[in-house]
Amino acid sequence: MRKSRRLLFLPAAALGLLGLAGLAGQPVANAQAPTLNVDAGAGQDGNWTNLYLPSSVTVETGTTVQWTIKSGEVHSITFILGQPPAEPVATPSGGSIPDETFVNSDLIPPGATYDVTFTAPGEYQYFCIIHPNMTGTVTVVDPGSAGAAGVDNNESAAARGAAEAYSASFEANANNAALLARPLQVTPKAGGQREYTVILGGETKLSQQNIMYPSQLNLRAGDSVKFKNEVAVPHSATFGAPPPADPFTVPASKAGAAVDGTGFVHTGILLAIPDPTSPTEFVLNFPKAGTYQYACILHPEMTGTITVSAAGAPLPPNTGSGIEAANRASMLGLSLVFGSVLLAMAASATVVVAARRS
Known about the structure:
The strands form 5 sheets. Strands 1, 2, 3, 5, 8, 11, 12, 13, 15 and 18 form a 10-stranded mixed beta sheet that branches. It contains 3 helices and 20 strands. The longest helix has 37 residues, at 321-357. The chain is an alpha+beta fold and 358 residues long. Helix content is 20%, strand content 32%. It starts with a helix and ends with a helix. The protein has helices spanning 2-8, 154-181, 321-357; strands spanning 23-24, 35-44, 47-53, 56-60, 64-69, 78-80, 102-104, 113-118, 122-128, 131-141, 186-188, 194-203, 207-213, 216-220, 223-228, 238-239, 265-266, 281-286, 290-295, 303-309. The protein folds into 2 domains: 2-152, Sandwich (Immunoglobulin-like); 185-318, Cupredoxins -  blue copper proteins (Immunoglobulin-like), CATH 2.60.40.
């Protein structure tokens, strides 16, 4: 996501990140050095939470931390000292950094891992280059030091991470429910046609909804749809297979282009903050009855279906599903709150037991 990366990388300079004197991307020679696992992202069905799980860990010197992307959204693991570079350059997992001032996985896909070995005590903060609220801390202590009693193992880290994921999921589900419950925006047009609005995605401080609102839409031939992005995450509405190119360079179709199932139609990249190449909204026309499926060119799990009836034909209602889904999501959110409390208690107990065993 080249464009988004450049837009959101700047807040990293304000994080007050500490030096990387004891951090290297290359594993230490000791084959017995421990590895601690940390997840990056969580969620399902396009409703993602953007956080590291757990957000803070304590390890002994010589430990390798391995991050795994666990959501459908790409993330980075980025440590930086001083002024960030003009363009974030990737440093390979397991590689070395000569000046030890910049460690960056770049954007890595779901399921990918990235390793960093910590060789000196200190507190090291990191972040995701496209989600500036997604931050984490690795505290490194020497074996036998006063801080060693709080060192994490994979069991304690996983328990805390699961508790944090439950809490963040409540925020994500609540926002998804609110977006599902929004009334459908319909604007009458000349000649009896209507313009419907589809909102592309949602977001909160720690979550991202890669979902079309609504994802199912019924209209009549001759109606149009305004696709609108209200968030900082770039999205599109794309009909047909895109060309094999950088998705940010695929040109948008002509404004008001017809979607009739005969070719590729693309809104281009839409952003909440418009610029000359990425507007906020884009209108497409639907002159012909049929069923048309589409997706975001950047987020393939983000899909929608538009069913077009013949002009004058009875129109299936666009009501009910949003409210029902909102109620289900709200009930799920409440259950997650209680679950997070219980899981947090279990995580605390696990940490105490682990400390007693050490």
